[in-house]
Amino acid sequence: MKTEELYQLYQKHPVICTDTRKVTDSCLFFALKGDNFDANEFAAKAIEAGASYAVIDDERYAINDRYLLVQDVLTALQDLSAFHRKQLTIPVIGITGTNGKTTTKELIKSVLSQHCRTYATEGNLNNHIGVPLTLLSIREDCDIAIVEMGANHQKEIEFLCSLAQPGYGLITNVGKAHLEGFGGVEGVKIGKGELYEYLARTNGTAFINTDNPTLVDMSRDRGVQKVVSYGKGATNYISAGLKEVSPYLTVEWQVKSQEDESIHTAESNLPGTYNFENILVAICIGSFFKLSPDQIIVGIKSYVPQNNRSQILKTESNTVICDYYNANPSSMMVALDNLEAVPAERKVMILGDMFELGAEAAMEHRFVVDKAMATASGRRIFIGEEFHKIKSRIDAEFYKNTIDASAALKGNPVKDSTVLLKGSRGMKLESLLTSL
């Protein structure tokens, strides 16, 4: 079946499903393959559950005309999403970066939603499957869309841009993450820089943090012509500074324009100085798309972090900074900087292993330990195999897993402290909350 024909069916049945457990009436089911499954086998189950059609790539399952045979289901999904994107005339903002993508996306959505019907990537659907699903969720009544794009190897952002076709874009930052797939930090720069390359090639607009010289250099080297700048400097389109940092950030900002250069103040529900730049780009994009300062202020204040990203949780005994959705060397360092800046009498850090670092894993974990030991804290706890390898001659607590760490915390409880809980998602540090 050709993409154009499939699109006609999509217009009549605009809900896409790839999981038989989530099938809704009249949806289109795409039978994707995984490492351990072939959803062609579940196509009949999807039809029985209410799907109008099932898109398959194994002719053995084409029982009747409700089974749409294509050469490859994933390619069909991606091609359909790109075709749909071409029908849209709204602004599309592409977001990538090492850290802060999801928080930044949600902040921008919260701001723009004060004035525009805004759609943004749900959760972390930011890969070669998630981006097509995001695009196919954008409806005709939408005014503006925000598409998050993740990557763990080069050419991935380039491909996602070919689907999402963003007219606007931003890179939050470039740091040490997915080093195994990218082949080191320089590989990360090349991979993330593919968004700038796309914007340069299509005459798109980049929102750039001028306080980050790496991003400035990357955009210049790739020939980006349309730039909207934000940062601390007065020459930026949006210039800003931090007014308050504890427990949550308050930002003062100014728009560089002839009409009004008043100073405005926005309170947030975000802890951590590393979130300053995320708030700032949301202010920048809101101003660029003609939202009033009052609308921007409401949008910033309305966003409350979720999903274990920069959340502050009060337990019976402690204040826990829950930042264990993910971790890499860059985000670990800024989290430790933030813990040092927090005005608390007692501080404790509980850090879990960082994944996908390849040959640099040992070195990067050592750097984190060194930084942690130089950061003021009453107790330092490291969890995971990588941290455990370097425990000798270090005056701190090391545990191979969260089970051992939990037992230690129950035997020697943490009380009346501010606790940083951070590690890669696979460490499942949330299991320690009952011990805090």
Can you describe this structure?
- By secondary structure, this protein is α/β, with parallel strands linked by helices.
- The chain folds into 3 domains: 3-71, Udp-n-acetylmuramoylalanyl-d-glutamate--2,6- Diaminopimelate Ligase, Chain: A, domain 1 (3-Layer(aba) Sandwich), CATH 3.40.1390; 88-302, Mur-like, catalytic domain (UDP-N-acetylmuramoyl-L-alanine:D-glutamate ligase); 311-435, Protein-Tyrosine Phosphatase, Chain A (Alpha-Beta Complex), CATH 3.90.190.
- The protein has 16 helices and 19 strands.
- The protein has helices spanning 3-12, 43-48, 73-87, 101-112, 130-135, 156-164, 179-182, 185-192, 194-202, 213-221, 276-288, 293-302, 329-341, 361-373, 385-388, 402-411; strands at residues 16-17, 28-30, 53-56, 67-69, 92-96, 118-120, 144-148, 168-171, 205-209, 226-231, 238-244, 250-255, 263-267, 311-314, 319-322, 347-352, 379-383, 397-399, 418-422.
- The chain has a 9-stranded mixed sheet, sandwiched between helices. Strands 14-15-19-16-17-18 form a 6-stranded mixed sheet. Strands 1-2-3-4 form a 4-stranded parallel sheet.
- Helix 4 (101-112) packs across helix 12.
- It is globular.
- The mean pLDDT is 93.
